[in-house]
């Protein structure tokens, strides 16, 4: 099915099942420990040996020599694979550095060997007996230094919003120079780690030349392709299985070393092999959100109308990598006739930078929305009003392009009302509660809505059970549930009457989980398959397809009513389809999601301890398929945004080129006790341009702008403007 224009009313619009706060289908399996994660498929791959991945101990240089003798002789060791014995390996489409290094080393903890043994302890002990001599080379690890000579670089890949290296509209320099009120400020965000709960893990099993991987991955088809490419085998010889994924946040978009090392280890040991990256390995071995340096200039007239806006971002990555697209929201969020956005990319020899939840917008808004707060103060305007005054209903770079839906103003106004914003004292440092300084902050949330083609298969058996199969993943987002709701709505059966099977590359290729496109795109694929199923059912029953209704487990047309199961009496039915989108669709109208974040903080006047007291998000993100699951996503994003504002910081060792705090003791993230009260409101909205589902993504919108709202609240509380994240107490001095 091709979607290239609004379809008007369709069966989904009945909203008898869609739009209801249905409990997560996978919830009971997760809370009872019976949902198997990658490392736990012991029954599927019995007798698996354990692989332990050895990471390079230098960041850049060569392996001069590697001595495996002692490790090979260690108890239980079955095989050791290094670049010398792995055979020819290619780099995957989605990896910047090779997943098995040697003799060249591209970054710290790049995998250089996998040791396979009968037990995990034996593999680890043997790995510690490997002796490696390195010839260390000089690396580039200092972003600020490297940016001094870094070239402009655009990006159109991955799941971030595309942005060219430089974009100009009007005459920014002239307009900024003559603006009566202006700001020129630079903000920095540090490297961030996904630190998802389930580590990167894979069990690999070969049967002849057929490879099966039970793995933790967000994008099954990308993964299947990259495993095949890396190992130099045909794609159809690879099967990926990931029914449950314990978080990803972008860290599992792409195949990482756990999968490749498990496959190589299993081939060498002639046994299934399971590999989980240890937490320290995962932080330096896999990807992270790159640090940024962002300069923002805004000029406005005295009424608060922006006349000039520039956002220039710099980030770094390994050779061949891409920039963090931190300017993308600035291209679309506010009006202003004279505009400039640009990105610079420095070469760094740190581990690979890549997508992390709302790549681009998450760090970009941490800068832009503080700059907006600073401008509002200079103008003597309320920060909500300043944003409202500069709202735009069209793409400010291409004014003949409208937003398909844009309720940013309502998000901000409703949020202000609900939060009690009018009680905020605009004078910083003026509200006290005992020894605590109290402040409120606001920020806009913005994230684009990307459409990805997605396929599914729907089956109806003689008992009337509907089964949906797609390689879509549920990374903790509620995919099982919204897909069941979609099929239930389309075929008129209860949610419990739908069996959903996900995360297997033998199923039709879905959109996968990334870029907050998963919810709308994967259910749209299920919608397409269900439309085909409805036709088949109508045909079997001899119904007129134009007026047939599927309600309450029955099929109705005219004055005839037949149980749905009847249609499968003569044999089970199966329907498969893919939802595709015309290129023009996203060009004609800009599809984005919006929100307003409101935060109240308390900063201890004596110790500088910062506590978040309450958070509110008001979101406009198309039709909300399941408010309960969507709320989960948004509060998760808000919590992650709070971490980005106050805690999270991968500390770079600029001498040796690695992230020092490579575990959960050193890399701090918020816990429940850090966030006492969170509220999420969704505006009633349906976007007919997004798909027949009329839904959009929320999984990334939740994090967008939160960091700035916290920072602005901290400023309101203390009068100290911190422009270098995270806002730790030392920065109040
Ligand atoms: Mo993407 S950073 O996995 O949502």
From TrEMBL:
PANTHER family: ALDEHYDE OXIDOREDUCTASE MOLYBDENUM-BINDING SUBUNIT PAOC (PTHR11908:SF123), XANTHINE DEHYDROGENASE (PTHR11908)
Signal peptide range: none
Residue span, Aldehyde oxidase/xanthine dehydrogenase a/b hammerhead domain: 32-138
SUPFAM superfamilies from the UniProt entry: CO dehydrogenase molybdoprotein N-domain-like (SSF54665), Molybdenum cofactor-binding domain (SSF56003)
Protein's UniProt name: Xanthine dehydrogenase family protein molybdopterin-binding subunit
Domain of life the protein comes from: Bacteria
Originating organism: Sphingomonas longa
Entries under InterPro entries matching the protein: Ald_Oxase/Xan_DH_a/b (IPR000674), Ald_Oxase/Xan_DH_a/b_sf (IPR036856), Ald_Oxase/xanthine_DH-like (IPR016208), AldOxase/xan_DH_MoCoBD1 (IPR008274), AldOxase/xan_DH_MoCoBD2 (IPR046867), AldOxase/xan_DH_Mopterin-bd_sf (IPR037165), PaoC-like (IPR049648)
């Amino acid at each position: 099915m091709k979607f290239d224009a609004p379809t008007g009313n369709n069966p989904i619009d009945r909203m008898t099942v869609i739009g209801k706060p249905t409990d997560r289908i996978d919830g009971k399996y997760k809370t009872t420990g019976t949902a198997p994660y990658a490392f736990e498929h012991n029954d599927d791959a019995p007798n698996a040996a354990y692989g332990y991945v050895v990471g390079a101990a230098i960041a850049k240089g060569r392996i001069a020599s590697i001595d495996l003798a002692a490790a090979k002789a260690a108890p239980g060791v079955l095989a050791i694979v290094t670049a010398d014995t792995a055979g020819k390996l290619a780099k995957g489409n989605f990896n910047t550095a090779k997943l098995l290094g040697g003799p060249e080393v591209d970054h710290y903890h790049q995998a250089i060997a996998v040791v396979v043994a009968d037990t995990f302890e034996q593999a680890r002990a043997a790995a510690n007996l490997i002796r490696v001599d390195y010839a260390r080379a000089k690396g580039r690890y200092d972003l600020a230094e490297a940016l001094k000579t870094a070239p402009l670089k655009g990006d159109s890949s991955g799941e971030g919003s595309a942005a060219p290296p430089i974009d100009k509209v009007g005459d920014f320099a002239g307009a900024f120079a003559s603006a009566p009120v202006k700001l020129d400020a630079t903000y920095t965000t540090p490297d961030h780690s996904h630190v998802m709960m389930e580590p990167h893990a894979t069990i690999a099993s070969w049967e002849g030349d057929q490879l099966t991987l039970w793995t933790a991955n967000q994008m099954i088809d990308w993964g299947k392709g990259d495993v095949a490419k890396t190992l130099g085998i045909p794609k159809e010889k690879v099967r990926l299985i990931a029914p449950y994924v314990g978080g990803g946040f972008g860290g599992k978009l792409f195949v990482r070393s756990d999968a490749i090392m498990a496959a190589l280890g299993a081939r060498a040991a002639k046994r299934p092999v399971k590999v989980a990256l240890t937490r320290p390995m995962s932080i330096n071995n896999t990807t992270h959100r790159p640090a940024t340096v962002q300069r923002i200039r805004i000029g406005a007239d005295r009424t608060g109308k922006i006349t000039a806006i520039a956002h220039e971002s710099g980030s770094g990555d390994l050779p061949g990598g891409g920039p963090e697209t931190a300017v993308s929201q600035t291209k679309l969020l506010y009006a202003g006739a004279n505009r400039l956005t640009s990105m610079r990319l420095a070469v760094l020899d740190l581990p690979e930078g890549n997508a992390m939840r709302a790549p681009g917008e998450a760090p970009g808004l941490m800068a832009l929305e503080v700059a907006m707060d600073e401008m509002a103060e200079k103008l003597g305007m309320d920060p909500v009003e300043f944003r409202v005054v500069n709202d735009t209903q069209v793409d400010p770079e291409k004014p003949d392009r409208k937003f398909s839906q844009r309720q940013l103003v309502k998000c901000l106004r409703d949020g202000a009302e609900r939060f009690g914003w009018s009680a905020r004292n605009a004078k910083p440092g003026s509200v006290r509660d005992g020894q605590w300084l109290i402040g409120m902050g606001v920020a806009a949330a913005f994230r684009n809505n990307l459409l990805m083609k997605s396929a599914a298969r729907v089956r109806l058996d003689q008992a009337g059970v509907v089964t949906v199969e797609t390689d879509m993943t549920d990374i903790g987002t509620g995919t099982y549930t919204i897909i069941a709701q979609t099929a239930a709505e389309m075929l008129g059966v209860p949610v419990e009457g739908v069996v959903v099977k996900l995360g297997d590359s033998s199923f039709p290729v879905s959109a996968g989980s990334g870029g907050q496109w998963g919810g709308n795109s994967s259910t749209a694929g299920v919608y397409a398959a269900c439309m085909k199923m409805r036709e088949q059912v109508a045909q079997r029953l001899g119904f007129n397809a134009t007026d047939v209704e599927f309600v309450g487990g029955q099929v109705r047309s005219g004055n005839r009513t037949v149980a749905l199961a009847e249609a499968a009496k003569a044999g089970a039915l199966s329907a498969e389809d893919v939802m595709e989108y015309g290129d023009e669709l996203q060009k004609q109208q800009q599809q984005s999601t919006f929100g307003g974040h409101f935060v109240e903080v308390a900063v201890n006047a004596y110790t500088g301890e910062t506590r978040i007291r309450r958070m509110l998000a008001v979101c406009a993100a198309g039709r909300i398929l399941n408010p309960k699951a969507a709320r989960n996503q948004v509060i998760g994003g808000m919590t992650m945004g709070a971490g980005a504002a106050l805690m999270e910081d991968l500390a770079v060792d600029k001498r040796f080129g690695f992230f020092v705090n490579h575990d959960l003791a050193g890399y701090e993230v918020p816990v429940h006790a850090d966030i006492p009260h969170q509220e999420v409101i969704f505006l009633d909205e349906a976007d007919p341009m997004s798909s027949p589902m009329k839904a959009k993504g929320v999984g990334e919108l939740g994090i967008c702008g939160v960091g700035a709202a916290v920072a602005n609240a901290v400023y309101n509380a203390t009068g100290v403007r911190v422009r270098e994240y995270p806002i730790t107490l030392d920065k109040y001095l």
